[in-house]
Amino acid sequence: MSGTPIANDIRRLRTERGDMTQQALADACGVTRQTIIALEAGRYAPSLELAFRIARTFGMGVEEVFRWEMQ
Fold it and tell me: Closest Cα to residue 39, out of 1, 71, 4, 13?
């Protein structure tokens, strides 16, 4: 079970974009690599601002990257 009900496809999207590194995504979004690691592992739910930054980096809407998963 993950630590947050907010799931995401960040790892898959990074891979689909020519193996974008966690550091490259972090730099593009103005956060640390550790933040990206925690997001991908489901240990951290992003702020609304960060969710938009990540989605826009991938050229997508927020709901295409993140989803609410209730148990």
Answer: 4
